[in-house]
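Pilot study result, target chain (361 residues):
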Amino acid sequence: MAQPLSLATSTMLNELDPQVKALLEQFHANAAQHPAPATSFSAKEKIIATRQMTGTSAALRCPSESVSKTEDFAIPGPAGKIPVRLYVPHTIILSGGRGIRQDLLPIAAPVLVYYHGGGFVAGDLESQDSLLRALANRSQCIVISVAYRLAPENPYPAGNDDAWAALTWVADHASEIGADPQRLAVGGDSAGGLLAAWVAQKAAKNGPKLRLQVLLYPNLDATTSRPSWKELGTGAYLVSHAQMIEWYDAYLPERINRKAPEVSPLFATDLSGVAPAFIITADHDPLHDEGDEYAAKLKAANVAVDHTPVPNSFHEGLEVVHTNERGFFQPDLVWRNLRFLRPTRLGTFAQQRHPSSVVMQ
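Predicted structure:
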């Protein structure tokens, strides 16, 4: 959770891009309106506050845009129904629909299964709604957003189990949502990026075949031992080291090995056959060492990787959509990198005209 600004924090903010700095200052201003109580929060109270802040911060992210269709429904999970939301982009003409509808999409479209962030304790179908609308329209693909179970009510492996169940359901039922099971991808931001990375590793061994994994400023190391946590994890850039440890403690039972690939994909020893990756990290994000190192490990395993380290930005800064003088966050520039799922002829993973764009043909 963002902390009220100190003098030191204000000085550090001067390093950021002006558009990014303005957004971060707004996050801190919101935090200042909710001062710490006289007594310390319990762990449960901190999580409740985190969930409230997650809902508030969603309003500061990219503006919501219309899509051709959204639909909320539930799919079978290992412990009951899993809520999901379907996004159909404007550029795909819908002649029918899912469930009670009789017709299907005229062209089977690529599909991205997406897991929201929130430190494993927060987030829902609303928290990344605006982001996923923009992603669906610009990448020309169907998106399925997954509301996996959260800690502490549902500790590990609940979130992992739901993430895997959602992926396999989409692979098995792609035709029902007008999707092409041969053009299947997973993605996620922050904690959701960890889930996406893990299901991509599991799918490499067990199927279904994935065309791409999209990891946006991902958590990948539950030990939080990388140097960037010590350097940047004060809370000045939204995420604090102490807070992340508390979230992992809420999610992971004591007996769990925090270097196991299921909870720390960074420590996987066999990455052969893992889906090509599009990874975004930010230089002022305490998680950036994890993403940078994972990109390097994937490349060493001969996995195709498009790694975009964004300068002068912070955790969740991707969702700034205003143009700045260097164009880092101009919508067309950012989302051109994500046109990996556009509905074109099938083919191999390839680099296209834009040097950092990944496209599935």
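One observation from the pilot: The chain has two domains: 7-58, 69-360. A full batch analysis is planned for the follow-on phase.
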